[in-house]
Amino acid sequence: MTLVLTDDQRMIRDEAARLLSERSSSEAVRKIVDSGAGTDAKLWSALSRELGWCSMAIPEEFGGLGLGATELVLLQEICGQWLACVPFWSTACVATPLLLAAASEEAKQRLLPAIAVGDLTIAVAWGALGEINPLAVCTVNAAKVDGGYSLHGHVSQVVDLPFADLVLVPALLDGVLSLFAVRRDAGLHIEPLTSMDATRPIGAARFDALELPPESRIDGDGLTSDAVEAALALAQLCFAAEQAGAARGVMDVTLAYVAERVQFGRAIASFQAIKHRCARLEVDIAEVRALIYGAAANFSADDAGELRLEASGARALASELLFRAAEEAIQLHGGVGFTWEYDPQLYFKRAQATTAILAQPEGHFCMIADALLGEASA
Amino acid sequence: MTLVLTDDQRMIRDEAARLLSERSSSEAVRKIVDSGAGTDAKLWSALSRELGWCSMAIPEEFGGLGLGATELVLLQEICGQWLACVPFWSTACVATPLLLAAASEEAKQRLLPAIAVGDLTIAVAWGALGEINPLAVCTVNAAKVDGGYSLHGHVSQVVDLPFADLVLVPALLDGVLSLFAVRRDAGLHIEPLTSMDATRPIGAARFDALELPPESRIDGDGLTSDAVEAALALAQLCFAAEQAGAARGVMDVTLAYVAERVQFGRAIASFQAIKHRCARLEVDIAEVRALIYGAAANFSADDAGELRLEASGARALASELLFRAAEEAIQLHGGVGFTWEYDPQLYFKRAQATTAILAQPEGHFCMIADALLGEASA
Amino acid sequence: MNTESNSALRSEIAEWMATHLTGRFEALRFRGNSGDGDALPELRKEWERELARGRWTCPGWPEDMGGRGLSVAEQVVFQEEYGRAGGPGRMGHIGEGLIGPTLIAFGTEEQKQRFLPKIRSGEEFWCQGYSEPSAGSDLANIRTRARKDPVTGEWIVSGQKVWTSLAHLSDWIFVLARCDEGSVGRNGLIFLLLPLDQHGVEIQPIRQIGGSAEFNSVFFEGARARAEHVVGAPGEGWKIAMALLGFERGISTLGQQMSFAQELELIIEIARENGAGRSPIIRQRIARAWVGLRAMRYLAMRVLADDPSGDMRREVLGYKYHWSNWHRDLGKLAMDVLGLEANIVSNDPRRERLQQLFLFSRADTIYGGTNEIQLNLIAEQGLGMPREPRGTLG
Amino acid sequence: MNTESNSALRSEIAEWMATHLTGRFEALRFRGNSGDGDALPELRKEWERELARGRWTCPGWPEDMGGRGLSVAEQVVFQEEYGRAGGPGRMGHIGEGLIGPTLIAFGTEEQKQRFLPKIRSGEEFWCQGYSEPSAGSDLANIRTRARKDPVTGEWIVSGQKVWTSLAHLSDWIFVLARCDEGSVGRNGLIFLLLPLDQHGVEIQPIRQIGGSAEFNSVFFEGARARAEHVVGAPGEGWKIAMALLGFERGISTLGQQMSFAQELELIIEIARENGAGRSPIIRQRIARAWVGLRAMRYLAMRVLADDPSGDMRREVLGYKYHWSNWHRDLGKLAMDVLGLEANIVSNDPRRERLQQLFLFSRADTIYGGTNEIQLNLIAEQGLGMPREPRGTLG
Fold first, then answer.
1. How near does any CA of chain D get to the CA of B93, in Å?
2. Neighbours of D (≥3 Cβ pairs closer than 8 A)?
3. Is D15 a catalytic residue?
4. Total tally of structural domains belonging to chain C
5. Regarding the domain with residue range B229-377, which homologous superfamily does it belong to in the CATH classification?
6. pLDDT digits (tens, 9 = 90+) for B51-103
7. Helix or strand or coil: residue D390?
8. Which of C4, C374, C375 shows the shortest C-beta gap to B1?
9. Contact call for B197 and D137, based on CB within 8 A
């Protein structure tokens, strides 16, 4: 296990950073925010089709590059840093690991190569997005019907749904959690929602006796294996990486501002209280990043093991960190901090939105405590 | 209801402060710490016999001054500030309110005048000192026997026990919580304990079929009335006042040190990060004091009402505040901060010791949440 | 100070509010508070005139200035009942609470005659021209210039003010400007009264985090104040400006606390409904919020009691820091109680109110003296710690 | 860097520890760590010689200097297994980890011959003479003077050092002193090696919060260092002193983490037993502690990996702040898990260990660079923020 990035990994990261610093600048993000779209379709096309981002962690046999968790967290960090309005997390860090963990060989052959070349953007209709394990509370039921399956139910919030080509839907079939792949043109009811964080689109999905062909069920044998748990943990970890990256991003914005803003005849960056607050954020960023890189380096697709706890820990810390970094950004910007015109508000809204998705910090700490102490009986 | 002190109250406070600044100086406290006694008998004699501190909140009909909760919290604050090694809290803020709330008229006539003139120092053998309501978990049982009562049981920690003349013991008698008064020479087994905080003595009390005369039972009709609850709340509030005072005391020590200590050619008090940390402590001290004075001004001996919640809130905040103030004192003293020779360690140990007595902050917040939200069903 | 009695006054106000904050004014309940300051402006101006008809504007002013001469304790009662009834954010606050008392204390007889009645009646609204782009926390760094027209004696003003609350809805502005060329810091300043509706004044809204625009930049380019509209003498503007801030004694904060209490109540209600109230952590945070609010109430009462012994000097200094951070944290608690729903904008009025709380309360720890300035003041004035050295930039 | 493999080495060490940290050495398990540094000194010196016989002292030194030439990764393995086995705090740490590497890098051949073998063998123990009463965080403010004896060429030292860990149990001290009269700051300093057992050296223990005395003040009054016991040239003491600190690369912190993990394990065990582990708040805090420890491990591995790309420069700076505050907070958690019992001193070994953790960990955020200094460094060197202006006092 190495905790130093390889030259290739550094190259991937630096190239991504260079690209997003240009293509996901404040102006670019604001354009998406103002449009209400939530997704930068052009940028996404560049990343997924031209640069092959979605192929990173897909095995070579399915047309991918066969790289791993470390590459995903590196890219997610950069996405977070620049608030890139792209469905990379949904497609590459949730749907892809879930397919790898649970899809039948046939479904993998069908879907993964399309993802790898950027032809398929996927949202996952998690049952309970506020849970650590959102599959545990499944709000969609499936039934076998003539000629295939029928889905009933409602998923109140699906990240990236308004932009996805395909939706993965975990649904209960005869008491077993199964996985369905539903094309957006298959009669799915999508209600776009207005999100306070306008940098990522969210929609509600409704399934009213939606009839699907047999091949829409894509799991091999249900969603219960360790591999699925590992995939979920990876999704958490990648989300933490995005949050850590956003914390880095908003802190860079803040550092630039305090270096220039003069009060009492001094750059406010020279005030010790401000220095110490920035330094403490920096310590916390380093902590979360170490945890993320360490967990990613240990990642094994077959065994959630400690990854589950570490990913939860990273998520809890990253949620808190990003919120605090964004909050401090507003505070340290002073009067302009709560204006539309400056960027802290963009990160601040992202911070709040990402805190609630896939469980708030206390939920993650609870889960870790259960593992360390046994479940609470009180 | 007035939140401005009267001239009399200010005089009581200022006089107490003047006295303890001389008689409970660092040297004086260290002498008690080194002796292992935990109580400054001479100082206590001066306060209780000469200055009539214990008479403050005793009604005039029982030989007291008939003052109230505000005077108690003022004196407690000063005691905390100077880490006075005296059983004032036990005698005047716990035992006296408990007697007023629950003792029979005869017992009041017998005991209160003696307390008022300083002839009686009292410890209360709370059943479960770690609880918000330590009467709720009673570890002593009483039985009627020929010629009186017999007590069985054990109270693992009794504050000020090693120095008390009389011990009040809540005990279960036929399923009813009753109150017994046991003289220390009545055959009670007292095991003095070594406390990390050597400024207050603690002992364990064991009752091995201890036979007591009938008049040792002093309650009128059990310990269940609202008045008893109000007395308990007042004890909490006074303890919070001591903690807030100690926070003020250790902060004064710190302010004096940072004003003198020079590093990098400047008094370290001039570094903004240090200023802001001290200022935040100051804000928190003001918060807790406001709560304490407000609750004390509202205090009614007949009705716990909101006092119970406010006293718990004050205790929770004061515990956290004192610990943080003491922790910051050590930190801001730098190298000398963790030496025996400087005073932060005295406050630091007091901080930890008082946190655990009468429930940790989370317990208090829990109780308040139960009142606001209803008990948790989870 | 007696807050529990004054019960006659208390019921008088409650009753007045109950009978007047109805009908078309119903829409104003709980609106127009911090961050929401530009809500329903015309209706709120009408509401001010409704208040004036009931003699509830400027109740703390002396009777000969058109007020009721209410004591501090009585004003507290007014604020509490006003807040409890959901009375909207006061458009007349700057006039009634800041420039009015300043004119009463420092104004000429003529100024009082000219300005006070229209403040009281809700005919003229005021805004405050203090902050500038490079004079935010550092107010003494004022650069707006006032030059005397040698012919007319008028003062000609050039420069820029920012964070001017409700400038676009106001009639007059008071401006702190530099009248002595070459002066620095607190010297050489002048305190002027200017009508906004004139050539040479341009108002630009500043859009806030929540999308609304309560604040403005105000640009002056040759705008004019009449010769007799200087308060105090030219050169002693700093003194007047600071005295004005001193009139903001925080009585209105007790009304504000009523609104805070309602927000907390709403959070508790939602936590009970959606299950968030079962989380031990949420429970701790709700309990903390309740305790903080209780403390805030007593703090405010202590601050307002104006203890002659000076015991409270330190506490006065910390009050703003306390309430603003408490309120900001309440906004975060509200979101965490809402959970996933917090992020979705809908027309559920409760959710909307909490989302606004969350976003707008970010301003609380910044305007009216940032946290950092408050902590400096507490450390320096309250604790006697050394002043921050001033640099040589800018 | 590979930490999971090296399994042959790992088992060799584990086995050696299992067979040697027994018998009379059994009493040393988990002793002598921070705050407990003066525990059982004679036995611990014997233990150092036991280690030396096993060739486990100085394993990272080059083989020609008596070491094993272990790589960083291998040293990490050693530290981890040493810590896991409960190996006591190393009396030889200053010699092995600080002055030894400094002499290897900067010493004369003669100095190496004279000093290295006895460090390696556990015959001579060293302590560090850097801090002074007015040069704590501000190390460049050194006032101890070194004057050359024109006759013998010896250096005559006068002044006071403080926070000298284990001086009373050491044989030699290295001293940073001012050799150029009138010089200030980092210039004009000299790095000297002095025997402690001589006239002109007086050692006074500093009693700590827990009652023990690991640290000392060392007073020099005409104490002498031989002419050839200068490291580097006179005047370049600062360079040597800083280089020495650079050798503290934190490899030992991975061993330390083993001890942290055991402390956390103990806390969890007690929380399970006494019911504190049912409290949701204690559970959150325990989970946080676990997460912090995992992060610390990866942080240390990243720091030690010494990434040639420089990606980790900022993270290296924050490592000390992270572990010391984590450990200090663990001490508080331990007390809160113990509850009421925390305050009572007894001979329950588990409780005693946690009480010591609580008290002694207070030093962690102070010695070796206070929190405040760490944050300054992170802000200035890591984030490029402006330096703190130096004053003119002292």
1. 21
2. A, B, C
3. no
4. 3
5. Butyryl-CoA Dehydrogenase, subunit A, domain 3 (1.20.140.10)
6. 999 999 999 999 999 999 999 999 999 999 999 999 999 999 999 999 999 99
7. coil
8. C4
9. no
Rounded average pLDDT over A198-226: 92
- The residue written with tokens 């249900």 in the block is A222
Same fold, A7-120 and A123-216: no
ipTM: 0.94
Both tokens assigned to C63: 């009777």
**Can you give the pLDDT at residue C1?**
35
Query: pLDDT category, B283, cuts 50, 70, 90?
Result: very high
- Which residue in D has a C-alpha nearest to residue C390's C-alpha? D389
Residue carrying the six token digits 């005391």: B249
Asked if D295 lies within 8 A of A362 by C-beta distance, the reply is no
> Is there a contact between D393 and B265 if contact means CB atoms under 8 Å apart?
yes
Q: What is the CATH number of the domain that holds D34?
A: 1.10.540.10
Has residue D3 got a pLDDT over 60? Answer: no
- Fill in the amino acid letter for D146: A
Residue C278 and residue B1: Cβ atoms within 8 Å?
A: no
D-chain residues within 8 Å CB-CB of A278?
379, 383, 385
> What pLDDT does A37 receive?
93
Query: CA–CA distance from C155 to each of C151, C223, C228, C234 (Å)?
Result: 11, 8, 10, 10
Q: From the CA of B120, how many Å to the nearest CA of chain C?
A: 34
Mean pLDDT on B145-152: 95
Among D12, D123, D124, D248, the active-site one is D248
pLDDT at C4 over 70: no
Best to test chain B binding among C291, C321, C381 (most B CBs inside 10 Å): C291
Label residues A69-80 b or e (16+ Cβ within 10 Å = b).
bbbbbbbbbbbb
- Nearest beta carbon to residue B331 from set D134, D343, D366: D366
- In this predicted structure, the answer to whether residue D211 has a pLDDT above a threshold of 90 is no
| Predicted confidence (pLDDT) at residue D187 exceeds the cutoff of 60 | yes
Q: A4-16 pLDDT, tens per residue?
A: 889 999 999 999 9
Structural domain including D161 reads 126-235
Residues C369 and B264: beta-carbon distance below 8 Å: no
For chain D, list the strands marked E by DSSP: 126-129, 145-148, 155-165, 172-178, 189-195, 201-206, 215-225, 230-235, 344-345
Report the topology of domain B123-216. Butyryl-CoA Dehydrogenase, subunit A; domain 2 (2.40.110)
CA-nearest residue to B268 within chain A is A272
Decide which of D48, D70, D91 is a domain's last residue.
D91
C282-C285-C287 Cα angle (round to 5):
110
The active-site residue out of C12, C123, C202, C248 is C248
d(CA B127, CA C240): 62
pLDDT digits over D235-288, tens only?
999 999 988 887 776 666 777 888 899 999 999 999 999 999 999 999 999 999
Q: What's the confidence (pLDDT) of residue D2?
A: 40
Average pLDDT, chain D: 90
Residue in the structure block whose two tokens are 């006070």: C116
Cβ atoms of D84 and D14 closer than 8 Å = yes
CA-CA distances (angstroms) from residue B53 to B39, B66, D203?
A: 16, 12, 48
CA B279, CA B114: separation in Å to the nearest integer? 44
Q: Give the separation between CA C391 and CA C225, rounded to whole angstroms.
A: 34
Q: Which of residues 28-67 of A touch C (CB under 8 A)?
A: none
Rg (CA), chain C: 22
Q: What is the 3-state secondary structure (H, E, C) of C305-366?
A: HCCCCCCCHHHHHHHHHHHHHHHHHHHHHHHHHHHHHHHEECCCHHHHHHHHHHHHHHHCCC
- Per the prediction, chain A carries an average pLDDT of 94
Mutate one of A266, A276, A332 to test the B interface: name it (highest B CB count within 10 A). A276
Q: Does A204 touch chain C (CB under 8 A)?
A: no
